[in-house]
Amino acid sequence: MRNFLSSLLLPTVLGLGTGCTSTNPTSEAASPLTGTLVDLTYAFDDSTIYWPTEEGFVLEHGTAGYTDKGYYYTANSFRSAEHGGTHLDAPVHFAEGKQSIDAIPLERLIGPAVVVDVTESALADPDYQITIADFERWEAAHGPLPDQTIVLLRTGYGRYWPQRQRYLGTTATGPEAVAHLHFPGLHPEAARWLVTERHVKAVGLDTPSIDYGQSTLFETHQTLFQENVPAFENVAHLDQLPDRGFTVVALPMKIRGGSGGPLRIIAIVP
């Protein structure tokens, strides 16, 4: 296991030096990593979208300036709910006794990935739920989804980030705002199909929740998380990716016992 992870992660980490210095979501990485890095993560700031019941991201500026010894130094503090911006939902979020964010195996967060594009349907209906038929259409064009694939769902809602009205369906906050949420998600039956028929590693999408906005029981969360399949939410720049043939690396903040946390997710496109 250690040799496998070292051979996969070390080149990735070495290659990230170039990608992290650019604001462009797509950047060429230096050797030894071959391919293009695509950053699928939104930056955290005061415009970052959180669930309406949460405060949002707060950066508290601390020391900044030159010390009496002549060198520059700055350090800040931040506070944030687990579930906001580009983040990972751990299975324990909706499934008692399942994996917390620190317990998710790295193998489940790294691997071959596909994009299933439902933009046309999702933009036409803000309450659209992605169905088994959508996946069957993808398979008709590209072949069966291989086992242990990371599935990314492109609804087209990334174009609305960070406009709360367009992205969430409301600018309201607080518990009463939840009833006014309108955005696409994954239908529970399709979630069950992905788990039982295609044995996916993880599922991500470019909306605030893996369940659609009007869900009250969060059945898709429950279905995935009972099988320890995590979800990536508010994933950025899915329009930069091909339908298949790339690798995803999705590494969240490792919060012991956490139900979720900020996620730095990238794609490596050959």
TrEMBL record:
Which superkingdom? Bacteria
Task: Please give the PANTHER family that the UniProt record associates with this protein.
Answer: CYCLASE-LIKE PROTEIN 2
GO BP annotations of the record are: L-tryptophan catabolic process to kynurenine
Matching entries from InterPro entries are given as: KFase/CYL (IPR007325), KFase_sf (IPR037175)
Q: What is this protein called?
A: Kynurenine formamidase
> Which GO MF terms are attached to this record?
arylformamidase activity
